[in-house]
Specification:
This protein folds into three domains: 49 residues; 155 residues, Ribonuclease H-like superfamily/Ribonuclease H (Nucleotidyltransferase, domain 5, 2-Layer Sandwich), CATH 3.30.420.10; 103 residues, no CATH class. The strands form three sheets. A five-stranded mixed sheet has the order 3-2-1-4-5, with helices on both faces. The protein is 39% helix and 15% strand. α1 packs antiparallel against α2 and α13 crosses α14. A hairpin with a 5-residue loop joins β2 and β3.
Length: 428
């Protein structure tokens, strides 16, 4: 018997012996007169047995079987598959992969009782104002890149570039890149457009890829122009509002997403044996589908705010890096140490002295445009000059750009000169 039951039996004995009144017993046992009479009648008939619950000594119907408990402890132990999974993630994996059905709170209690998890320390946080979610899907996407050891040493370090919808908490897009670079963000925007359409606005940090750090010059101020990064230019041409966050907490939804993925995604890729960036990008879509099914919420407004894609839109024109070049008299331009000759076309006029645009897609395809008209061109092989021929003396000429200089020029596309230099070495 418990101490509470023992105390109740002692009070009832005193009532029956007449040492205390029923009124005093009501206060001691915190019972009404009706309840006290019922308990007292049962005690006179069955004695101490009447104070015991009817299920005392019986095995609970919902008790976890011992074999299931042993299996769970083995999987969650030091050498188990889920030894470093959190409780919620382990609960999902046990149900999906091991066909073990157990309540989340029961699993938490089981792991704590066996010393497999401890108390989580909570840091004192700064009080911040809560921002309501957007009402409809597509109104606001939070985008960011997360450099991390996603493969836990089994492969190279990578950066996950992704976007999460503010209204539904859905992962809209994700791709692994060697580094957080401009090409990854342009690919992200192009992939979102192809599947959903254009969002109304993007919420991002002040990374120089996403927001130009340059101050406007005097000419810019007179013309009312603000310096833009290549990504800002793409957003401006597509009519997407760019919102810069000045603290990680301001875009907390995508920051919390990275914390969750660095916990869940890394462990699921470990179990799947993912060891390269190619395998990681193949594994990612299935994980995103499971994540969205588990964690997404319904928007307040079921009518989405996506701007639907056009049927014949020239994706390379918008989703690319753009620079200008002036056409020479012989209808050629110089581009990163190469000469490109513009071929005649029935629709084109003489372009000598005019400015055209060079567009480079994330896949490094080079396209030339005059306005929105795509131009045909061919690359011209460098011809030896007289001072390159042996035995011909001439004054020293300016040296050609070396691979490192070309790598620095190409760094605006890759985001880091280190990545660009590795590509130059690979091509050589």
């Amino acid at each position: 018997m418990s101490k509470k039951q023992q105390r109740r039996a002692e009070v009832l004995n005193r009532v029956l012996s007449g040492s205390i009144t029923k009124g005093e017993a009501e206060g001691l046992l915190e019972l009404s007169r009706r309840q006290l009479n019922r308990v007292l009648s049962g005690y006179q008939v069955d004695g101490l047995r009447s104070l015991l619950h009817g299920n005392t000594g019986k095995t609970p119907a919902n008790k976890t079987p011992p074999e299931s408990t042993a299996s769970i402890l083995g999987l969650a132990g030091e050498d188990g598959r889920y030894h470093d999974f959190n409780v919620c993630h382990m609960h999902d994996m046990l149900e999906d992969n091991e066909s073990v059905m157990i309540g989340r709170s029961t699993l938490d209690r089981l792991l704590r009782d066996n010393g497999l998890i401890g108390k989580r320390s909570h840091k004192k946080q700064v009080r911040r104002k809560r921002r309501e979610r957007r009402s409809a899907e597509g109104m606001l996407l939070q985008i960011d890149g997360s450099p991390h050891d996603w493969l836990e040493g089994r492969g190279p370090r990578m950066s996950l570039v992704g976007a999460v919808d503010d209204a539904t908490n859905k992962i809209i897009y994700g791709v692994f890149r060697p580094t957080e670079d401009l090409a990854g963000y342009v690919m992200m925007l192009r992939g979102i457009y192809a599947k959903y359409g254009l969002p109304e606005s993007l919420y991002h940090d002040c990374h120089t890829i996403l927001r130009s750090p340059k101050a406007p010059t005097l000419d810019d101020e007179l013309a009312g122009i603000e310096p833009q990064s290549q990504f800002q230019r793409v957003l401006s041409e597509l009519g997407i509002v760019s919102i810069a966050a000045h603290s990680p907490q301001a875009k907390g939804r995508v920051e919390r997403l990275w914390k969750t993925l660095q916990d869940r995604l890394t462990k699921e890729m470990r179990i799947a044996g993912v060891c390269s960036i190619e395998q990681a990008n193949e594994f990612l879509p299935g994980f995103i589908r499971r994540y969205n099914k588990r964690f997404s919420v319904e928007p307040k407004n079921p009518q989405s705010a996506w701007v639907k894609p056009e049927a014949k839109m020239d994706l390379a024109y918008y989703f690319s890096v753009k620079e200008t070049r002036v056409v020479k008299e012989n209808h050629t331009i110089s581009w990163l140490g190469r000469t490109l000759e513009i071929l005649p076309d029935s629709r084109s006029t003489c372009l000598a002295g005019k400015t055209i645009n060079v567009h480079v897609t994330p896949e490094e395809e080079i396209l030339l445009y005059h306005g929105k008209q795509r131009l045909k061109y061919r690359a011209i092989e460098a011809q030896p000059r007289s001072h390159d021929k042996p035995g011909v003396k001439t004054r020293a000429r300016k040296s050609l750009p070396n691979p490192a200089a070309l790598a620095r020029k190409r760094a605006w596309l890759y985001g880091t000169a280190k990545q660009a230099e590795s590509d130059i070495i690979r091509e050589a």
